[in-house]
Amino acid sequence: MSNHSPILNIKSVSKDFGAVSALSNVDLQVHAGEVVALVGDNGAGKSTLVKILAGVHQASSGAIEFQGKSESLATPRAALKLGIATVFQDLALCENLDVVSNIFLGQELKPFQLDEVSMEVKAWTLLNELSARIPNVRSVVASLSGGQRQTVAIARSLLLDPKIIILDEPTAALGVAQTAEVLNLIERVRDRGLGIIMVSHNMEDVRAVADRIVVLRLGKNNGIFTSKSSNQELVGAITGASENVVTKREKRLKNQSNSTREK
Amino acid sequence: MLTKSNNESSQTSPLDRSDSRVNHSDDFKGMIANFFGRIKSGDLGSLPVIIGLIVIWTVFSIMNPVFLSSRNLVNLLFDSSIVGVIALGIVCVLMLGEIDLSVGSMSGVGSAIIGVLWVNMGAPLPIAIITAIISGAIVGALYGSLRNRLGMPSFVSTLSGLLALLGLQLYMLGRTGSINLPYGSSMVNFGQLMVVPAWLSYCIAIIPAVVIIFNGLRSISKRQRMNLSPGSKKLLFIKATLITITLLGIMYYLNLGRGLPWMFTLFICLVVLMDYALTRTQWGRFMKAVGGNAEAARRAGVNVKKITISAFVVCSSLAALGGVMAASRLASASQQAGTGDVNLNAIAAAVIGGTSLFGGRGSAYSALLGIIVIQSISNGLTLLNLSSSFRFMITGAVLAIAVIIDSLARQSRASHGQA
């Protein structure tokens, strides 16, 4: 098992937008066959981190190691090639194209004489592996429901046999049954030995599938939890509720009394 | 386990027929029903333009029977080819949701280059033609770069290009303002006289059916092998037969007059080529994707900037080629070439043919259908001895109607959950 060395190792990555530092010295590890949930309040830097990993933005400083090698992730294409597939919150599907074209966008077989039949077969295979319920892969994406679009986006990310899939708010727009389906989907993908980074606001979903829960707050790491951690702990870390004047004072008094006792 | 159970179920039904919730109508009756369903939901395709064409032709032939004579139709095809080629380029930029307002001036520059290089300076004709097309490509690359690097809206960059290129055209033509091409040269014959021999025109009429049946059978056998629903052979043959009968009829009628112009054949070849590029290649897929959702395309790894430049390059190159054809049709390179209504006719043709102004939807054939509508109106009104004032007004009205149909169909598609 190569579980001991992470596939993806993010070391003190920072990202500045002008005077605003969206991320400062963030660390994150992802192993094969592991679901890592990335949680945090609005503006915590989750989406920025996702975009850096997808190659949409570039980190201002810090290092990203993929399978032990340092990588730059200069473009979306570079990230894809490396084996990092991203499913964005807005799914980034072209509504005017059909399901097959969307799944294969940028990866078409035979660029000068598109092999539609093979692409359709591969699309069906991917969708069936996910036990997806897409009635017709030749219908345009505009005619699909939210859950179906999510499935298409996930199927697309699996096309290149990635090592890591990043899901940005996969359940945000979904109903109860569809959410359960997507969670099943995530577990199925994990069982194939892929690393998954899942960004979510929904603590219930996060705890249902995540092996580790990494909390970001104001662009910094703010603790790592497991699904066994209590809701209070999690929410405290996310909102920073456990870190205010009162707690700080208590901590200081405690430290003082400890040190006096040691003396 | 999972894949195994899938394989088992797929042995009974093809991969794409395993979902019972979808209506699959593979027979002829189902196809007709599908067709009406699509129209109801606002996926009109080329239907409005075909209906429009029938109405226009009926009205004009009632008002002047000469209109439908084969002699007049051959002339109509000669005239259609030039703006048709330009409209083909417009389809490309419209596909991205951009516009090129300078195609008229660009075609003027193209024709001026032919005059200056070939007639005045005595350069070989092929070199003059290639120079014209390359200069078009350069102008297109410039528009594309302005769009990419400076974010300059193509509406503005090409509007300024319209003026600048017009100036270039006038400068090149010098004080006389017009250069005559030698009569009797192959160039002028191509634009005014040369037609496809009758036997060859009938052969050409059969080609589409051969291609349809060949490709269709290949795809059916491949789909069968891959365990997809193959589609119906009967439909394929019905389609091929209908197309062949129509084309043979058209050829027969044209051959009663002078016959099929070579210039129009060139236009058709370009249309077919463009259709292949747009529907069967990765480039075409990228064009549609960028036109539909540029950010999504970028994140999927599409080089959006390259695609944008390619669209403008193709458009301006085709405009320059249209200018070359105009020179051969008029036997001169003059200050008038490419001015007046050429610009708007080309854009109107693409839109009337069914290419959306909003990007992401369109086909090469819309240039063909659209230009025949535009040219029919212009030709018919000329036959009725109506002045160009009426022609402008009526063409303008037709363009407005086409855009209205486009936006209405778009709204209807949105409410029926289709792109």
Q: Using only CA atoms, what is the Rg of chain A?
A: 20 Å
User: What's the mean pLDDT score of chain A?
Assistant: 86
Query: Could you describe the largest sheet of chain B, including whether it forms a barrel?
Result: 2 strands, antiparallel
Instruction: Summarize the amount of helix of chain A as a percent range.
Output: 25-40%
Number of strands of chain A: 10
Largest interface: A-B, 45 and 40 residues
- Number of distinct helices of chain A: 9
Could you tell me the strand content of chain A as a percent range? Answer: 15-25%
Roughly what percent helix of chain B? over 70%
**Which H/E pattern describes the elements of chain A?**
EEEHEEHEHHHEHEHEEHH
Strand content of chain B: under 5%
In one word, what is the shape of chain B? globular
How many strands in all of chain B? 2
- The N- and C-terminal alpha carbons of chain A lie at a distance of 48 Å
Top keywords for this entry?
heterodimer; A: 263 residues; alpha/beta; 6-stranded mixed β-sheet; 24% strand; B: 419 residues; mainly alpha; 2 strands; disordered N terminus
Folded structure, characterized:
The complex is a heterodimer of chains A (263) and B (419). Chain A has 263 residues and is an alpha/beta fold. Chain A is built from nine helices and ten strands. Chain A has helices at residues 46-54, 76-82, 99-104, 116-129, 146-158, 176-191, 203-209, 231-239, 245-262, and strands spanning 8-17, 20-30, 35-40, 61-66, 69-71, 84-87, 164-168, 195-199, 212-217, 220-225. In chain A, the strands form two sheets. Chain A has a six-stranded mixed beta sheet, sandwiched between helices. In chain A, strands 2-1-4-5 form a four-stranded antiparallel beta sheet, with no helix packed on it. Chain A is elongated and about 80 Å long. Chain A starts with 7 loop residues before the first strand and ends with a helix. The model of chain A has no long low-confidence stretch (mean pLDDT 86). By secondary structure, chain B is mainly alpha-helical. Chain B has 17 helices and two strands. A two-stranded antiparallel ribbon of chain B has the order 1-2. Chain B is globular and about 75 Å long. At the A-B interface, helix 2 and helix 4 of A face helix 1, helix 9, helix 12 and helix 13 of B.
